[in-house]
Amino acid sequence: MKTIIIDSGGSTCDWAVLENERLVDTFMTQGMHPMKSDIASITHRVFQKHASVKGADDIYFYGAGTSTPLLINRIKASFKDHLNNNQKLHIESDLLGAARALCGKNRGLVCILGTGSNTAIYDGAQLTKTVASGGYLLGDEGSGYHLSKTLIINYLRNNLSVTGTAIFQQYIKGKNIDLVNSIYTSQKPNAYIASFTQLLPLLPDMDKRNCVLPCFKEFIHKRVIPIQYTDIGLFFTGSIAFHFKKELEEALKTVNLRPEKVEPKPIEALIEYHIENL
Length: 278
Description:
- With about 280 residues, the protein is of the alpha/beta class.
- Helices cover about 45% and strands about 20% of the residues.
- The strands form two sheets. The protein has a five-stranded mixed β-sheet with strand order 3-2-1-4-5, with helices on both faces. A five-stranded mixed β-sheet has the order 8-7-6-9-10.
């Protein structure tokens, strides 16, 4: 029995191959989002390069952008040339993957803070309630995009310290107008803006806090509190939650909340969930 587990975020995608409940291969590709990526090309390269993925009985795809039949069909189409009638492709949301990884069969409020952001209540088997993300144009509070956008605005409006401004200018090596032009002429402005997240840890603490804390507080008030239950734990995964855990805990403390668990990626725990339960 061979199973492939795919956990895809907006930027990167983790693959794991299980054979007879034993992990035999893991690797990473670029993110496989049906609205942003050429998933067919990615899957084609994977099936050419990695012999371990061939002959799988089940493929579990957990990903962002699985909210409509149209997007799900795009994912299905990208795998059709690599599957026969006896193989099954299961397409689920990245939120369900995170919930299974973080909570197992227990209840919890699950949050993803990565390139984008998401929240949902998990009852131990399925997602029961969520607050729509809306994507980077309409929401994605607390995401890498949101933090980076706040950083850029603070720079453009001279709200960074002298040291922070110097660090930012060294990073962009250009004038303000060049930065604005680069954003507005980029083919993927959200990804370009989100890339500035890597600059945040280099800034003085006050500059970093002034960018990160307001974003996390907005995320909590708009995406967590509306569905928060007092009797369930709060679980986080994603690079932003993990790398800015200190600021996240500080923001949660202002509303008397604390995280039960904060993990950078769900893939390792998701592997264990599949071995034990599926």
